[in-house]
Specification:
The complex is a heterodimer. Chain A contains 11 helices and 2 strands; from the N terminus they run αββαααααααααα. Chain A has a two-stranded antiparallel ribbon. In chain A, helix 5 packs antiparallel against helix 8. The longest helix of chain A has 58 residues. Classes of the chains: A mainly alpha, B alpha/beta.
Chain lengths: 329, 350
């Protein structure tokens, strides 16, 4: 009795103490963690601008449209790399998006349940291949295959198009785009698969009840219901494709000119930075590479914001589909 | 009131204790630094890295002093010594006058000697195909595009040459090998000099870029008709098939330590800032390999670690250190370069 009467105020006092310290501590620590992330982002952006400043003040916005990168004459421009980034990412998504959607439909609607988990795991594991290994595979296997088989076939069938003209080459935009396809497919697949799994069973059953075939059900229920999620997933893949540096640098052939032919060598912003930053001599080459980095950063921020907007508009706030880990910088 | 005073007092005590800890630890570290001297730190050239790692272990066992080296690339080495974040930088390309000005009071000292060699992969072409500077420049300018080009046939009388398309391969990252190769091509071909020029990265009008020596080697081995250039040591240790390149004497020396040594011996002119170009060889040097190159260490003229730096670089250019060279496909420095180096080392001061 006595002990009980005594312990209550003691407990209360103790709780008051933990309340007093615990809450501010939690707020302080978690606030600090959040602040570190924000400060880091601002600091990185500041530093990139700072390193790039000599190039920004020398070339201005004309940097974006200059089709040259010549360390000997110190004339630098971003056009060849912006072009390379856009072309390789666009082709990669052109292949990866339908492929990923098909895989996801198979895994959520068609595959026997025994197969679903192992196949999904294997597709996810594609994302675990280090990009440098994928790049090596590109040099040793995919590149020669493109040169010997794919590109000659494309050339003989569609050679009248400028994009399929010129000599087949193991290194170039097309090889890089296919490597990016392999890298983005598991990302897009894993997001679309999760989106497809959220499609309510009643809707699907309703569709079947109306006499739909499987294809009609997928086309009329699953795909429309998941539209925002699919777009978000594709943009997540786009963020990955834009930012990938090492594997692209290994297979794209490091040329600094715009060329209409997809067989031709070129480079992307991320690949150019990865290839040249360390050894860059001269007063302008490193600032110009940082300027490229700044453009890349802006690209990624835009992609991120667009993805966020689309996902929000689609009412899918719960599904966290934002390419936060896609940045190269 | 008393509680608050107590907590303030405790906080004060804690601050003092921490400050004391900090100062005591910093004083111990500085005193230990004084007794055995903090290690030298250097960064730069990847070409010199294998030789450097031999030097590091040998130097440590002889003098009990350690040298730390980061093989981050020549451009990085120049940037780091310019900002004085390292004690010495290493570069395969000599500093430009602009870089010299920016680095504000540094000196470059040639401390190792090697070469850059072309390598090729052409089905049906003979081994040790003969080429010369004009042909190489023509290939890299995109003017010579097939292996049975008359210019190549003329250098290889009687050889059967396939009509395979030539794919020139170059380094897409900054590299001392690119400098050595383009410096050589600029010397032999005025057209190459005006259209491309010499630097650690240049804009080739044609061809395929690949990363590092192994990337270039892989691109060559995977492409029929490819030709590229790699470091001498890399080419020899990987047994790439190398063409023979004609020198100024009209002979075709086998690339190796012997012919690089001959090239260094043939050039006695040491330029301003100890810059030595081996691209324009005299026509009397019969056994001299035409694409040989010095690699440099860059040191500040005024530094706190002057004594340690002098000691290490004197060791590096000395016979004991240079003897490691040939095993790693570096040629030993010729006597007149060592003499010039010693004069340069004497200028380093505190």
């Amino acid at each position: 009795m006595e002990a009980g009467a005594l312990s209550t105020p003691v407990l209360r006092a103790r709780r008051n103490l933990t309340d007093r310290i615990g809450d501010p501590l939690l707020r302080g620590l978690s606030g600090l963690a959040a602040a570190v992330a924000v400060v880091l982002l601002v600091a990185i952006a500041y530093e990139v601008v700072h390193i790039a400043w000599p190039a920004i003040s020398k070339f201005g916005l004309g940097f974006l449209t200059t089709n040259d990168w010549n360390p000997v004459t110190e004339r630098f421009g971003a056009a060849p790399f912006i072009y390379g980034t856009v072309v390789t990412s666009a082709i990669a998504l052109l292949f990866a998006a339908p492929l990923s959607i098909a895989i996801s439909i198979y895994l959520t609607e068609l595959a026997p349940s025994r197969l679903r988990r192992p196949v999904a795991t294997l597709v996810d594991m594609l994302a675990a291949i280090p990009s440098v290994i994928l790049g090596l595979w590109g040099i040793l296997v995919l590149g020669p295959f493109m040169h010997d088989t794919i590109e000659p076939a494309l050339k003989s069938a569609f050679g009248f198009l400028p994009i399929f003209s010129g000599d087949p080459s193991a290194f170039g935009y097309l090889t890089a785009a296919l490597i990016l396809t392999i890298m983005t497919t598991p990302i897009i697949t894993s997001v679309t698969r999760e989106v497809f799994e959220t499609v309510p069973g009643e809707l699907k059953e309703g569709s079947y009840a109306l006499g739909s075939t499987r294809w009609e059900m997928v086309r009329q229920v699953v795909l429309p219901y998941s539209r925002a999620g699919i777009v978000g997933a594709v943009i997540l893949g786009l963020g990955r494709a834009i930012g990938e540096a090492i594997a692209v640098a290994q297979v794209i052939g490091g040329a600094s000119l715009i060329n209409a032919s997809l067989f031709h060598t070129g480079s992307t912003m991320a690949a150019q930075i990865a290839a040249q930053f360390q050894g860059a001599p001269g007063a302008l080459q490193q600032p110009s590479l940082a300027y490229l980095g700044l453009i890349l950063l802006v690209f990624e921020v835009i992609v991120n914001v667009v993805a966020r907007l689309i996902v929000q508009r689609g009412g899918l706030e719960d599904t966290d589909v934002t390419p936060t880990e896609a940045g190269a910088l | 009131m008393t509680k608050r005073l107590l907590s303030v007092g405790m906080a004060l005590a804690l601050t003092i204790a921490v400050a004391a800890c900090g100062s005591s630890s910093s004083s111990t570290s500085s005193s230990s630094g004084g007794s055995s001297s903090s290690p030298l730190v250097g960064a730069g050239s990847t070409l010199v890295a294998p030789l450097m790692s031999k030097w590091q272990s040998d130097y440590a066992s002889k003098t009990k002093e350690t040298v730390t080296y980061g093989a981050i690339g020549s451009g990085g080495g120049i940037a780091q010594i310019t900002s004085r974040t390292v004690d010495f930088g290493a570069s395969d390309a000599p500093l430009t006058s602009e870089q010299f000005k920016e680095a504000n009071g540094v000196e470059q000292i040639p401390w190792a000697l090697s070469g850059t060699v072309p390598a090729y992969n052409v089905k049906g072409a003979p081994k040790n195909l003969k080429l010369n500077g004009e042909v190489l420049a023509g290939i890299y300018l995109g003017k010579i595009t097939a292996w049975n080009d008359p210019a190549i046939a003329k250098l290889n009388p009687g050889a059967s040459l396939p009509s395979t398309k030539i794919t020139p391969v170059y380094r897409s990252d900054g590299s001392g090998d690119t400098y050595a190769f383009t410096n050589y091509l600029s010397t032999v071909s005025p057209e190459f000099k005006s259209k491309v020029g010499a630097s650690t990265t240049v804009k080739f009008p044609t061809g395929v870029g690949a990363e590092k020596n192994d990337g270039v080697a892989a691109a060559i081995s995977q492409t029929d008709g490819a030709i590229g250039y790699v470091g001498l040591a890399y080419a020899l240790s990987n047994e790439l098939s190398m063409p023979l390149v004609e020198n100024s004497a009209g002979s075709f020396p086998v690339p190796g330590v012997k012919s690089v040594t001959a090239a260094a011996a043939a050039v006695s002119k040491i330029g301003p800032n100890n810059e030595i170009s081996l691209a324009g060889l005299p026509s009397t040097a019969k056994g001299a390999y035409p694409i040989s190159t010095y690699t440099y260490v860059i040191v500040p003229l005024k530094t706190e670690k002057a004594d340690a730096l002098k000691k290490f670089i004197t060791y590096a250019i000395g016979p004991a250190a240079q003897e490691f060279g040939p095993d790693l496909d570096f040629a030993p420095l010729p006597a007149q370069v060592v003499a010039a180096d010693k004069k340069a080392i004497a200028k380093i001061g505190g």
